[in-house]
Amino acid sequence: MEDFINAFAHEVKLEIANRYFGFRTGIEGEIQDYLARLHDVDGQIAAGIRLDLLRMRFLLHQERLFQAFLSFAGLPEGLTEDQSGRQLSSRPGELFAEMKGEGLTRWRRYRDLAFRVYLSLVDNITAYRQAYLDLGKEYQEICTRINDFHRNNDLTGILSFLQTFDTATAERLKFLHTEPYHRPGIHPDQELRIAPPCPVESLLPDLAAVPPLKQAKKPLTALLEAAFAFHRDCRQAGPF
User: Fold this and answer.
1) What is the DSSP string of 155-182?
2) Is the torsion defined by CA of 123, 126, 132, 133 positive or negative?
3) What is the model's pLDDT at position 149?
C-alpha cells in the first residue's frame, strides 16, 4: 500500500512538473512574440515618426523654429534619433523621396509640403499610440499569467522533485538548474521563476496625440513664414 501511495505521489508530482515545463515553454514563446512586436513598432512606426520630424526640421531650417514646433505639437526632444543613438539622414533627396508640394508659387508648394508632412506625422503617431496601448495590454496579460502561475504552484516543491530524477532524466531537463542554491544568494525556487519581459516604456516613449491639422494650421503657418525666407533665397533644387 505504501508503494502504491509513493507511486501515486510520484505521478502527481510528475504531472505538476510537466505542467510547469509546458507553461514555461508556452509563455516564453509569447514573450518572444511580444518582444518581436515591440521592436517592430520601433523599427517601422516609430521610424516613420522620426522621418516626419526630420522632414519638418529641414523645412523649418532653424533649430529654434523646430523646437517651437515640438512645443506646440506636444512632442519630446530626441525623437529624431533611433534607439542606437545614430542620427538619420537629413539630405533632402532622401527625406522627401516620392513627396513633393503642389501649388503655383514656391511658397504654396513649400506650405503644401509641410502640411503633407504634418498629416503623415498625425497618421504615424495615431498608429504608434494604438500599437503602444496594444503592447501595454499584452505586457500586462503576460505578467498576470506569470504571477498567477507562481502564486498557484509550489516552485520549491517542483524543484525538490526534479532533484530526485536520475541522471538520464535530468539530462533531458538540462536547460533547468536542478542543483539547490545553484547561484549564491538565490533561493531555490528562484531557479524556476519566470522573468517577465521588459515593459513597453523601457523601449518606446509614451507619446501624446498631436493636434489635428485644422487646429495646427495657424501656429504651423506662422513658423513656416518665418522659415521661408531662407528657402526663398536658396538656389538649391528641392521638393518645392
Assistant:
1) HHHHHHHHTTS-HHHHHHTTTS--STT-
2) negative
3) 80
